[in-house]
Structures are given as structure tokens and as C-alpha cells.
Write a structure and sequence with these properties.
Order of helices and strands: HHHHEHEHEHEEHEHEEEHEEEHEEEHEE
Helix content: 25-40%
Largest sheet: 8 strands, mixed
CATH topology of the largest domain: BirA Bifunctional Protein, domain 2
Number of helices: 12
CATH class of the largest domain: Alpha Beta
Oligomer: single chain
Shape: elongated
Length: about 425
């Protein structure tokens, strides 16, 4: 959500930020509605003051034995006017809130400008991409091992689901546990097990609603299945005032994620790259306004460390204005190398949302003993997507016979297993 005061003070800067997002100017329409609402509020205050004054005059007239009929008629008329203006104010406020709720966060000044992913800028590369003759993609490897079953999943649930068996099922579980242990024991994140269903208010708070309802799954109880644990984790600070000295507040969770993939028709239809249900380790940080830029760098390094420990080549890019998510003011994507596709593919996205989500959630902070509050900054990032990480392990550690070498750091989580093969 955007700060109306900032729009009033510098409408041109607001419109320039929207233009960098590829959007038309909106300050004129917003400020016109804002002016109408403020005018209605002023009129309402004036009418309420006159009603109170007339009510006192009625009391004085009655005590003095004078006729108060005209004053009583005036008060009745004022009451009707108050109801009409209150309704008018609510309608204008609702229209204003609808516009503001549908506008994305403004990009940070340093974010590169561009219409789509073609304008993203590479920051660094780590590791040498494996160049293999006849490298297989993960779905061919998994099916030949007899441990990845798309046909059974389709029979159970339809497209974009997978059944994992045996050592591949254990590999996915091992990856999630490894990531959680890394983030909690070395990176300072608190492990949380949140609900997997949330109310409208929570989905609105992080920016999924109202704009992206079609990307979510809704239950017949009115809940939303979480598309990422960013939603419940970030909303743990909703409607709260935190002590600035207690920040940053870092949380991590391993949860299933559910996405309708409404706009993904024809994309990654084979395999596990784009699923309706998948596991992800999420990192969320809540900071003071002056801490978020440094925290953004730190969280990106935390996500990168997962791939470094596993020995997976990757690159980190900063997203351009046309490729960022709705709530982000700046985003780093981490792309892991997949030999089967001979390409880098996204495995983590780490975003600084500034105070955008905090305004929607009414999450504030203040120094201890201070009366003045300010909105916190919120950040989120994959630490990392477990299914995609398993794909990367399978493809980068595949052997000519179709077996998969288990990375050293995962072997304690795999019961000492060194190699996944059909006879394992």
C-alpha cells in the first residue's frame, strides 16, 4: 500500500515510479478522490458541530419554556445529512482504497529499468556449469530410476503433480531438512511451523489479494491455501508495534506451497519445474527502515550458501522494473544451472518490500520508550525451493549409467547413502 502523504507531497515522483513499472500516471485520480474524501470529512465535522450546538440550544429553549420545534427539525435534518455524507465518505474511501490496493510497490532508484526479463542484470556467477554429453533432464532420470511417477500423480490429481518414491522421496526430504538446519543454526533464523491456510486479511497483507486471486487455491471454508509461507510468516507481525531494538526478526519455515499457475499454460508442462504443489524453505525478515538494504544482501547470501554447500553452479541477477513481483521494491533472483536444459533456472527470489506490506498489515516499530512509531520493512526469500533444488542435484550429479551421486552435505540426511540408483 502507498503513503497518501507522499503522493500529495510529490505526485510527479509517484507517477515516475509507476512509469518505471510500465503503468500510466495515477496521482491525478488518486488525489482527486483524496480531495473529495477530505472535503466530505470537513463538511461532516462542520455538520456534526452544528448538530451538537443545536442540541444544546434545544435544551436551553426547553428549560426557558420556549418553542424548540424549529431547532428539533433542524437537528433531524442534520442527522439525515450526516448519514448521507458518511455514506459518501465510505464510498469515496472504498474507491480510493481499491485503486491503492491494486498498484504495485515502486522500484528502488537503483533497480534497472526494462520491460521484462531481458533487461535483468547479472550480478555474479559462482561455480563452473557442468557440460555433459547427452545430459538427461530430471524427469527422464527420475522415471528411469522408477522413483518419479507423473502418470500416477495425474491419475490422482491431474496435471502438474508428481509422485516421488524411495530414495528420491528421501532426497527431497533431506534437502528440506538440510536447508532448515543451515538457516537456523548458522544464519540466525527462527524455525516456525505456520498454518497452511490463511484468511483474506493475511493474503491481502502480503499483496496476494485482491490482484492475484486467480493464482491461489481457495477452500470451501473461505480460506486460501498458502502460495508460500511468506504469507503466514510475514503476517505474524500484523497489527503489532515492535521494539526497534528487537529487529531484525528472522523466521524460516519448510512448508508445502500451493499455486494455481493460472498463467502458466504451455510452460514447463513436463517434470517438476512448475507444480501446483511443492515444498519450499522460506526466509522472512522484519527490520527497521534503515536496516532493510543490508538485510537484503544478507538474505541473498544465505540463499546462495545453500547452493554453495551443495556444490551447485548458479548465478545471481537483479530483476529489472518490468520483471519484479507486485510487493517488491528490489529483487535478486538466484538461478541454478541445469545441465539437462543447458540453462540457468530460477531457484530463489529474494525481495526487499520496504514498508509496502507493513502498511497493508499495519505493522510498526519504535525505539523503546519512544511514542512515535514508523512502519517496519519486510523482506522475503526462498531459501530455497526444495523441488527445484532436487532437480538441480539430480541433473548436476547424474552419472553416465543414470545413477545420481549424493552431495556430501546431504549424506548424513540420507543414512549415509552415496549414490541413488535403480537397485538402491
Amino acid at each position: 500500500m502507498h503513503d497518501l502523504r507522499l503522493i500529495r507531497d510529490n505526485p510527479d515522483a509517484f507517477d515516475r515510479g509507476l512509469a518505471r513499472r510500465g503503468l500510466s500516471p495515477m496521482s491525478g485520480e488518486i488525489l482527486a478522490l483524496d480531495a473529495r474524501r477530505r472535503a466530505a470529512q470537513t463538511t461532516l465535522q462542520e455538520i456534526q458541530a452544528r448538530r451538537n450546538e443545536a442540541s444544546k440550544e434545544i435544551g436551553l429553549a426547553k428549560r426557558a419554556g420556549r418553542d424548540a420545534a424549529d431547532l428539533m427539525a433542524e437537528v433531524a435534518g442534520l442527522k439525515e445529512s450526516i448519514q448521507q455524507i458518511e455514506e459518501q465518505e465510505r464510498e469515496i474511501g472504498a474507491a480510493l482504497d481499491t485503486i491503492l490496493a491494486g498498484l504495485p510497490n515502486l522500484p528502488a532508484d537503483e533497480v534497472p529499468e526494462g520491460p521484462d526479463e531481458s533487461a535483468n542484470v547479472e550480478v555474479r556467477r559462482v561455480g563452473e556449469p557442468a557440460r555433459m554429453n547427452d545430459a538427461q533432464e530430471h524427469f527422464d532420470l527420475g522415471e528411469k530410476l522408477g522413483m518419479m511417477d507423473f502418470a500416477a500423480a495425474a491419475k490422482l490429481s491431474g496435471a502438474r503433480f508428481t509422485v516421488l518414491r524411495g530414495q528420491l522421496a528421501r532426497l527431497e526430504r533431506a534437502l528440506g531438512q538440510f536447508m532448515l538446519d543451515l538457516h537456523t543454526t548458522e544464519h540466525g533464523f527462527l524455525e516456525v511451523m505456520p498454518p497452511f491456510m490463511v484468511r483474506d486479511e493475511a493474503a491481502f497483507g502480503t499483496g496476494q489479494l485482491p490482484k492475484f486471486a486467480e493464482d491461489l487455491f481457495r477452500t470451501n471454508t473461505g480460506h486460501w491455501l498458502i502460495p508460500t509461507s511468506e504469507v503466514p510468516l510475514t503476517n505474524l507481525v500484523a497489527d503489532r508495534i515492535l521494539d526497534l531494538e528487537d529487529l531484525p526478526l528472522r523466521m524460516t519455515a519448510l512448508t508445502p506451497c500451493f499455486r494455481a499457475e493460472a498463467g502458466a499454460a504451455g510452460k514447463d508442462t513436463r517434470g517438476m519445474i512448475r507444480q501446483h504443489q511443492f515444498w519450499k524453505v522460506e526466509m522472512v525478515s522484519v527490520t527497521g527502515p534503515d536496516q532493510s538494504d543490508a538485510e537484503h544482501q544478507y538474505m541473498t547470501e544465505c540463499a546462495e550458501s545453500v547452493l554453495k554447500r551443495l556444490g551447485l553452479p548458479f548465478r545471481t541477477i537483479v530483476l529489472c522494473t518490468g520483471d519484479m513481483g507486485f510487493s517488491a521494491r528490489k529483487t535478486y533472483d538466484i538461478e541454478v544451472w541445469l545441465p539437462g536444459q543447458n540453462a540457468y533456472r530460477e531457484i530463489s527470489s529474494v525481495s526487499n518490500c520496504g514498508d509496502f506490506q507493513a502498511r497493508r498489515m499495519k505493522a510498526r516499530c519504535r525505539p523503546r520508550g519512544d511514542k512515535n512509531t514508523q512502519f517496519v520493512h519486510t523482506l522475503n526469500g526462498s531459501g530455497v525451493a526444495v523441488g527445484r533444488c532436487m532437480i538441480a542435484v539430480m541433473e548436476n550429479f547424474q552419472q553416465p549409467d543414470g545413477s545420481i551421486t549424493v552431495p556430501d552435505v546431504l549424506r548424513p540426511y540420507m543414512g549415509g547413502l552415496e549414490r541413488i540408483s535403480a537397485d538402491a
